[in-house]
Write a structure and sequence with these properties.
Layout lengths: L1 E3 L5 E6 L3 H12 L4 E4 L11 H7 E7 L2 E6 L18 H7 L4 H10 L2 E3 L7 H12 L5 E2 L1 E3 L18 H10 L3 E3 L2 E9 L2 E11 L3 E14 L6 H7 L15 E7 L13 E4 L4 E5 L4 H10 L12 E8 L6 E2 L5 E2 L4 H20 L3 E5 L3 E2 L23 E3 L12 H19 L19
Parallel strand pairs: 1-12, 2-3, 2-12, 3-9, 5-20, 12-21
Antiparallel strand pairs: 4-5, 6-8, 7-14, 10-11, 11-12, 13-16, 13-19, 14-15, 15-16, 17-18
Helix pairs in contact: 1-6, 1-10, 4-10
Bound molecules: flavin-adenine dinucleotide (FAD).
The site of flavin-adenine dinucleotide has 38 residues, from helix 1, strand 5, strand 10 and helix 10.
């Protein structure tokens, strides 16, 4: 049976409440648009605990022995991400085919984007930095999406990392409707125009209802692992025709007696040698460390956090592999890419050993979220509209620059789309938008 969620027609239906969906919903709702957010996950209270992380994490295969992780919850993948913020560059704009500088300036004013002062660096980060410097490698601090005012004396706080859930909450405060456990299965198209979506709404333990919702504009922000399939089902051609990139990565770890490691923010500094790979500081929180050891069946080190020194290695892989008609991802790393991993691993081992690390081991290869499957000016126009009128895409599928971290750029893309949609939905324009909250800035 198909139920209509409401007779009301929304201005915009935003599918997915991650980085892009949350930003879009917030920007549109504050401009007085009638916004419906459909999110397949629940509205979990986000905490850095085993049960909380396990409840939201979903892994997808993107190749043989290669998996990527995302989060299914209100706020999407930012409930798991690290908060590293590599800003878009001229190359990013060139590869996207659009300029985001106005939105970058706006987002910088609203978000806590700053390097972490030395007072935030853990003993393990300082040891790593010193060891690398002795060998001629220079760690550079990254900008982080971290509200430092929440970190008393530089203490690590999971809540200090910016998360898209806060934007969903703002959107709802501005009048947006959020329906959780609502998995969109189909875009409704009439006369070549998107008019709504069909979704499965989980109601209670066993019951799922098939519902529809109608909107003047439909935006797919379901994330890079879900959007290609929804578009393929709409008949859009050539999705993922050049494959994808997915920044394969793993960690190299070793024990240093007496290190006295403490909880800290992952990825706050890294070494870029311009050789197609990056060497990151693998310092993290003790909870995340335990999860990594469990996932890698390294029982022996489960309680060795205080003496563990780690580096993360990541390669900037080329576009390749394929996206199947069923939305599945398949990629095999080339010999050159495997060699880059080897080269990076050798440097990591050198730095760890110089710091006195023993018992060196590596974790299994993981992929980042696949990028590059949908291209602006090919699959969508400059305003992110597909060939199907009123159907838009705004999420990680559009990421075109392998060299940057995606979240900040995605926030800017969503801001840009919100301006376009707002302008194209004329009638309720009269009132001005209320001021936005500015997240406390770095101290
Ligand atoms: C472990 C990890 C670490 C990361 N670290 C960083 C970092 O340090 N810096 C950085 O910039 N980025 C990082 N990222 C990547 C970043 O989190 C993502 O690029 C970004 O959040 C993607 O945003 P999105 O809007 O495309 O999708 P998401 O945030 O993934 O949101 C998609 C949402 O859509 C929902 N959804 C999916 N299908 C449906 C459907 N059919 N119906 C309804 N809802 C649906 C999902 O449940 C989800 O909530 C990391 C990611 C992970 C997993």
């Amino acid at each position: 049976m198909t139920d209509r969620v409401t007779d009301r027609e929304y201005d915009v239906i935003v599918v997915g409440s991650g980085t892009c969906g949350a930003t879009l919903a917030r920007e549109l709702a504050r401009r007085h648009k009638k916004v419906l957010i459909l999110e397949q996950g629940q509205d979990h209270t986000l905490r850095e605990t085993f049960s909380s992380m396990a409840a939201v994490t979903k892994e997808y295969s993107v190749g043989k022995d290669l998996k990527a992780a995302t989060a299914v919850t209100v706020g999407g993948s930012t409930s798991l991400y690290f908060g590293v913020c590599k800003l878009p560059t001229a190359e990013t704009y060139a590869s996207l085919g659009i300029d985001l500088s106005a939105e970058v300036a706006e987002a910088k004013r609203e978000l806590p984007v700053a390097e972490l002062p030395d007072q935030f660096l853990s003993p393990q980060s300082l040891v790593l930095r010193k060891s690398a410097a002795e060998l001629g490698y220079k760690f550079k601090k990254n900008l982080m999406l971290v509200d430092q005012s929440k970190c008393d004396s530089g203490r690590y706080e999971y809540d200090a990392r910016w998360k898209a859930k806060s934007y969903v909450e703002e959107a709802v405060d501005f009048g947006a409707t959020l329906i959780t456990q609502a998995a969109v299965t189909r875009v409704l198209i009439e006369d070549g125009r998107a008019v709504g979506v069909e979704y499965k709404h989980k109601q209670g333990f066993m019951r799922t209802k098939l519902c529809t919702a109608r909107g003047k504009r439909i935006v797919l922000s379901t994330g890079a692992l879900a959007t290609p399939k929804l578009l393929i089902d709409c008949g859009i051609k050539n999705i993922g025709d050049r494959g994808f990139f997915c920044k394969p990565a793993y960690m190299v770890c070793g024990t240093v007696p007496g290190l006295q490691a403490t909880d800290t923010f992952v990825g706050n500094q890294d070494i870029e040698l311009g050789k197609g790979f990056s060497l990151g500081d693998g310092a993290m929180s003790s909870l995340l460390f335990k999860l990594v050891m469990l996932a890698n069946l390294k029982w022996r080190y489960l309680f060795s956090f205080s003496k563990m020194l780690s580096m993360g290695i990541l390669i900037y892989d080329s576009m390749g592999g394929e996206v199947g008609k069923d939305g599945s991802f398949r990629k095999q790393l080339t010999a050159a890419e495997l060699q880059k991993l080897q080269d990076a691993e050798q440097i990591a081992i050198e730095i760890l050993k110089n710091a006195g690390a023993r018992n060196i081991f590596r974790t299994k290869l993981m992929a980042g979220i696949p990028g590059g499957t949908i291209r602006i000016k090919e699959h969508v126009d400059e305003n992110l509209q597909t060939d199907i009128s009123h159907l838009y895409v705004c999420d990680h599928s559009l990421m075109s620059d392998v060299m940057i971290t995606p979240t900040f750029t995605l926030i800017c893309l969503a801001k840009r789309l919100a301006k376009h949609l707002s302008a194209s939905l004329q009638p309720s324009q009269a009132r001005s938008a209320p001021a936005l909250k500015v997240v406390a800035r770095a101290s």
